[in-house]
Specification:
The structure is a single chain. The chain is mainly alpha-helical and 171 residues long. Helix 8 runs antiparallel to helix 9. It contains nine helices and no strands. The radius of gyration is 37 Å and the shape is elongated. Helix content is 81%, strand content 0%. It folds into two domains: 51 residues; 95 residues, no CATH class. About 12% of the residues have low confidence.
Length: 171
């Protein structure tokens, strides 16, 4: 009974709707607009080029991100490669750094007595202890992205300090 009342109300509402008759030239207007759009050269290619440019930017950004994340761990040898005397750098990279410092300081005592040199040695010792602690935490806790990032930053700072020490000694 309720459905029948609803159906009657719906039919009456539909009958009471006004009728709209399209103008006589409506379809011709639509057809001519479509023909004009099809005749305009390059309008379709502009959309295609926008999509291609967006795709290119996304691909370039992804490639840059992946390459940047792979190159975050720079080794001591790579950092030292831009110094002028590459043969002495090979000796530094190949030998233990502490042995290298002892040998150099026995020859060049005045540089090793400089306050800047002593400050760098202190910073290097502290950083090496920090790297050891972080490595121990990684070993005991397992993979942790933040620990790896902290270790990478500490390693990079260690390389920077070693580079400064070599510059002072070779300077």
């Amino acid at each position: 009974m309720k459905k029948e009342k609803e159906d009657k109300a719906l039919r009456k509402a539909i009958q009471d709707l006004p009728e709209h008759i399209p103008s006589a030239g409506l379809w011709e207007d639509i057809a001519s607009q479509l023909e004009e759009e099809a005749a305009e050269p390059g309008k379709g290619s502009v959309n295609w080029m926008r999509y291609a440019a967006a795709l290119l930017l996304i691909a370039a950004g992804t490639a840059w991100y992946l390459l940047d994340s792979r190159n975050s761990g720079i080794s001591f040898g790579e950092e030292l490669s831009d110094l002028e005397n590459e043969t002495s750098i090979a000796q530094v990279v190949d030998s233990d750094f502490e042995v290298f410092l002892e040998e150099e300081c026995s020859d060049i005592r005045e540089v090793c007595e400089m306050p800047e040199f002593k400050t760098l040695i202190t910073q290097l010792t502290e950083l090496e202890a920090e790297v050891t602690n972080i490595a121990y935490m990684i070993e005991t806790t397992g993979f942790d992205e933040f620990l790896y990032k902290a270790k990478t930053k500490a390693d990079q700072e260690t390389v920077r300090i070693k580079k400064e020490l070599v510059k002072l000694l070779r300077g």
